[in-house]
Amino acid sequence: MQPLENQIPTTSKSPLSVQDLTVAYHRKPVLWDVGFEIPQGSLVGIVGPNGAGKSTLLKAIMGIVPLASGRVQIFGKNYRKARQQVGYVPQKESVDWDFPVTVLDVVTMGLYKKIGWFRPVAGKHRTQALQALESVGIADLANRQISELSGGQQQRTFLARALVQDAELYLMDEPFAAVDAATENAIISMLRKMKSNGRTTIVIHHDLQTVPTYFDHVILLNMRVVADGPVEKVFNEDNLNKTYGGRLTLLDEVSEAMRRRERSL
Amino acid sequence: MIASSGNSLSLPEFVQHTTHLLASIGLSSWEQAYRLLSFQDHNTRVVLLGTAMFGCAAGIVGVFTLLRKRALMGDAISHATLPGIAISFLIATHFGWNEKSLPLLLAGATITGVLGVLAILVVRNSTKIKEDTALGIVLSVFFGAGIALLGIIQQMPLGHAAGLESFIFGKTASMISSDTVLISVASLLCLSFCLFFFKELKLLCFDETFAGSRGYPTTTLDLMLMGSVVVISIVGLQAVGLIMVVALLVIPAAAARFWTDKLGSMTAISACIGTLSGICGSALSAIYPRLPSGAMIVLFCAGCFTVSLAVGSRRGLIIRSIRRMRMNRSIAGQHFLRTMFELTEGQEASLEQQEISIEKLNFARTWNPRELSDTIRRATNAEWITRIGSQIRLTKKGRIEAERLTREHRLWELFLIHHADFAPSRVDREADHIEHVLEPEIVAELEALLSENQKTIPQSPHLLAHHVAEDEMQTRQHAEPTHSSRNRE
């Protein structure tokens, strides 16, 4: 069985609902009062300038960074309880690609939780990982050392690691950054296939031009949610100006002031 | 060997001679060396087992701390143990306990060692001071406090302090059976932690964020790993001493990386290097009592590292320079073929029918003469060209290859000019650097982007070097008629 081939049933609960979420690093607020709800089976893009808190939002959803306030619900449950249903693809720059492991090793990492503590990786797990690699088109690289991969192949490896988990909600941090055109096409067609099977995917995205063709739902983020909803309704010049325009918004100024005060303490 | 040459020593004489030699450097008899090396001596067995266990565990824990980029944490921890040792000693003398009891001294060492780690974390997290600075401060301050306390102990009237210094540089000779049991148990503990949690530690070291997203308790795992480092540093106090214990946490793992790209094998190799260093270092020190065990262990370790650095099968210097040489040769070969193509380009006769003189080739590019003749030799062997005297002609195989290379080179040049905004005069150099890594999929993308069809070779976007060179050659021939004829000889 290829990963993600099976259709998942629709539920009444939203795959992801975020309410009044605020996150602060060392008292410097990064996200203010963020709230949105994602419909099941949608392909969602998160766009916003550098430092808008996009990556932090994903990490806050998964509970990797502490919340100053607010609530995150995944299929109506706490993240701790819904963890098995969530797959995460971190930024590929976040790891050391010189690490002594093979491509297949990295993909099996997606199964560690399923394998459980104290148990070694078995043959059937490797078969599963190989299938995931096949579905992203790099099964032939399974035994390569990861330092030999190109940017696109690194990204495919990370995708395979998330796919092998067979989750229902996927959070991806810039999967299209620094990949070749062939990989970009492969990823987007895979995301569409996942969508048709009822999976929900949230993608941090940088290329504004492709937003209307890639996504059906978009969240414009700059420390707070500027707009969120169907692409055709909210992805317009007005909202983009609000998200990207004016380098120093009032919000920036306030948080900068708080940071300065913190520094002088 | 001895019998074969006429005037050499007879066997009994040889033995006597050697015994004398060994005795002069501190070994009384052959028998003692034999006893040592065959582990008959109880004390030697104890020492060797202890250092072997320690070396093995340090090698394994070291792999994870190295990959977690915490290699120097061990150094700070071991230095921070000294005040603990001194305080335990003071407490023991005060209450009239056995002040040389190893468990007691090590308990004190553990407490200040852990305090040292906490101090680093507090300084790092609550101030703007970076981790390396915090490490430096804690390491030197704790060590200084320890030295001061040792000074106080030596001033005391009771003065049984002799032996405490051996914790600084290590002295295996002072180990007894119960010490070995303690060392072995502690080492086994660290060792089994790393093996039981192998895949979790692998994930933690590779991708902490992902581990967190999957619900692994990353902080707890990290603390347990730090805990193992504390245990290793303390266990190593007796064998290698607190100054050098970090060597066994860093060097075996770093050496192992030269041999493999797999974490499992890296761990096994590192464990072997650690174990071997422990055994050989302490054996050397047992045979020659003047040689301190700690230094011997570390030096043996460093020997393993140097060998790995040179001949390591994955990343050793020799294998890498061989790879680089092959790469350079293949690049030179590609340049050669492309130059051949460009020299024959646009002529009426087909490429395979044209002969090019070596002299002409020499002018077309800035070759070093040896490089050119080597490249020609290799191209002949690869059946890319046939050579008749100083004339060279492409074979069919060579022509196909030359066409492909030239085409890729020019596609890349065109890309640079039209899409990356490079000046045409600069592209040749830029393209030279990159064309050797062009993979088929990238070439396909270039074709699509430049809407080039599959067959034709685009015109060079810049003036080719040999056109310039030809002009130059003609001018020179006019000025200096003997030049070319001399070259031809």
What does this structure look like?
The complex is a heterodimer of chains A (265) and B (489). Chain A has helices at residues 54-61, 79-82, 103-108, 112-115, 123-135, 151-163, 181-196, 211-214, 231-234, 237-244, 250-264; strands at 16-25, 28-38, 43-47, 69-73, 86-89, 169-172, 200-204, 217-222, 224-230. Chain A is α/β, with parallel strands linked by helices and 265 residues long. In chain A, helix 7 links the parallel strand 6 and strand 7. In chain A, helix 6 (151-163) packs parallel to helix 7 (181-196). The longest helix of chain A is centred in the last third of the chain and has 16 residues, at 181-196. The mean pLDDT of chain A is 88. Chain B has 489 residues and is mostly helical. The longest helix of chain B has 28 residues, at 317-344. The model of chain B is unreliable at 1-6 and 480-489 (pLDDT under 50). The interface between A and B is medium-sized, with 33 and 28 residues.
